[in-house]
Amino acid sequence: MKSDIEIAQEAHMLPIEEIGGKLSIDKEGLELYGKYKAKITDSFLDKIKINPSGKLVLVTAINPTPAGEGKTTTTIGLGQALGKLGKKAVVVLREPSLGPCFGIKGGAAGGGYAQVLPMEDLNLHFTGDFHGITSANNLLAALLDNHIQQGNELEIDTRKIVWKRCLDMNDRVLRNIVVGMGNPGDGFLREEHFTITAASEIMAILCLAEDMKDLKSRLERIVVAYNKKGEPVTAKDLKGVGAMAALLKDAMKPNLIQTLENTPAIVHGGPFANIAHGCNSVRATKAALKLADYVITEAGFGADLGAEKFFHIKCSQASLKPDAVVLVATIKALKYNGGVPKKDLGTENMEALERGIANLEKHIENLQKFHVPVLIALNAFVSDTKQEIAYVKNICEKSGCGFALSKAWEKGGEGGLEMAENLLHILATKESHFRPLYKEENSLKEKIEIVATKLYGASCVFYSPKAEKGLAHLENLGFGRLPICMAKTQYSLSDDPSLLGRPTDFTLTVRDVYVSLGAGFVVVLTGDMMTMPGLPKFPAAFNIDITEKGVITGLS
Would you say the C-alpha torsion 256, 259, 265, 271 has a positive or negative sign? Predict the structure, then answer.
């Protein structure tokens, strides 16, 4: 079979005005970025607020493995399949980060015959949203250092600066650096840190803001440091909000592109789910709900991360109610969870499948705790046997879930028809009674322990002295009613990436916490999670090139 980029480059794309027309977006509602990309205008977004809302479907997955689960591919294939059934559907996704694109994970445009286009543009600079976010973030950092250099009127404690610079690249040497070296006019000497743009608070703010007014209100609340009395110093105090908002003006507008089968796709925002909240923008999701009857969106990594944050952060802040959840799994990934090495995953192994199915069962139990109907999408591989498929199907049906085999990677929308038909049946026969697991009035520790014990399966939570002190400080400042954003490995339900399947009787370690007040949540760092990834020994960048005729190769 052809590579993803070859399939994408041979696809027949429609002018973006025609894609907009499928959603009843007129020419005045689009700002064109060439022939095949556009932003949806603020005036059009205001106009459609009176429209009735469609059905909201979240696509999530089991814990990711080297075998791959195909969550984005399944999301796109499901949208294409609904289109084949004559339904007015739209796919809503996050934008890829350059970090994973050039690192180990690759791009995020789907795969096979279930991709969004133009694939190269999306995976690289796209419409410049990430650059706008990076610039706004680093402007605030520059204003902070300049304020201290110019006399420090706010009496900022230079030992308690919490704002980090950011870059949309995996660059480990920027995790901990020293700045201000040189002459007195070059700033004051201090330790500085970088985070990747996708994990920055500005990214989270952009993805959670309803409009420009809300954006500026959130930017005002950003805590950049603490003064000598221990009080928060904010972006508003540094008088940076207006300029930051100006840099984010265009980035705030959702992007419209298309799938291989010309299904509309709104792609906007890109927070990671292991170190941020992992969901596309509220503006994109709410616009899609007013433009289509069925909105298929995704949240990053496994359901223990992306789905949990979708429910507790995005849905709670934006008053969204999911109508159903699609949980993606593969037999290869389940066997990997059962202890089979990657090289042997193509061989039938019922014993390993029976051990590894525990990971899927735990994710099913977790999703059902939110009282939302669940459909299991088994992403098919040629090596899957009838006995293996029948076993997984039986487990899913015993759990009270729908089940469908997805062949979207191989056949596009046609390969997703079984999935789409079963989803439509669930939406027509089962009602969602969505509710979060914890309440606003729960303390920060209570929220952490509910997620750790009820969703991850931990027996208890250990807090480092730094985390204990940080939690007490945040509660004293009045931030205890905020939701939590868990920063945890994506490879395990626990905070130890080596614990596969369904680990039990483990202790979750919280080593630090900090507030993202503009985003409206408290970040909880577990295990050895860090907010600036590094490149692997053989990064994907080695394979990416461009021909003399301007054709990009090697993207995946």
Answer: negative
301 catalytic per annotation: yes
Q: For residue 372, give both structure tokens.
A: 């939302």
Strand blocks (E) in 366-439: 374-379, 402-406
For residue 77, the number of C-alpha atoms closer than 13 Å in the C-beta half-sphere is: 32
* Tokens of residue 397, six digits: 């049906």
Residue whose entry in the numeric block shows the structure tokens 């992007």: 255
Main-chain phi, psi angles of 432, to 5 degrees: -85, 135
Closest listed residue to residue 325, CA positions, set 25, 98, 61, 545: 61
- From the list 301, 370, 479, 521, the catalytic residue is 301
Residue type, 486: M
* 3-state SS class at 516: strand
Distance between CA 352 and CA 344 in Å, rounded? 11
- 479 labelled catalytic: no
0.70 exceeded by the pTM? yes
The structure tokens 């027949």 sit at 12
Q: Report the distance separating Cα 22 and Cα 371, nearest Å.
A: 33
Asked if residue 279 lies in contact with residue 313, where contact means CB atoms within 8 angstroms, the answer is yes
| DSSP per-residue codes, 455-502 | II--SEEEE-HHHHHHHHHHHHTT-TTS-EEEE--SSSSSS-TT--SS
Three-state DSSP class for residue 14: coil
Average pLDDT over residues 317-325: 97
Give the percent of the chain with pLDDT over 70. Answer: 100
Q: Across residues 205-224, what is the average pLDDT? A: 97
Catalytic: which of 73, 127, 197, 509? 73
Closest CA to 303 of 204, 353, 355, 376: 376
Q: Which of 22, 39, 55, 94 is catalytic?
A: 94
E-strand stretches of 381-482: 402-406, 460-463
pLDDT in tens, 230-284: 999 999 999 999 999 999 999 999 999 999 999 999 999 999 999 899 999 999 9
Beta bridge partners of 91: 265, 296
- Tokens (6 digits) for 371: 């009282």
| Beta bridge partner(s), residue 485 | 523
105 is catalytic: yes
Cβ atoms 322, 70 nearer than 8 A: no
Residue 4 phi, psi (nearest 5): -55, -45
Residue 72: phi, psi to the nearest 5? -65, -40
Rg for the chain, CA atoms, rounded: 23
The encoded tokens of residue 184 equal 């007195």
Q: State yes or no: is 272 an active-site residue.
A: no
Q: Which two tokens stand for residue 101?
A: 């694109």
User: Are 123 and 107 contacting, i.e. CB atoms less than 8 angstroms apart?
Assistant: yes
> Taking all residues of the chain, what is their mean pLDDT, rounded to a whole number?
95
Give, as one character, the DSSP assignment of residue 415: G
Taking a C-beta distance cutoff of 8 angstroms, is the pair 552, 120 a contact?
Answer: yes
Q: How confident is the model at residue 68 (pLDDT cuts 50, 70, 90)?
A: confident
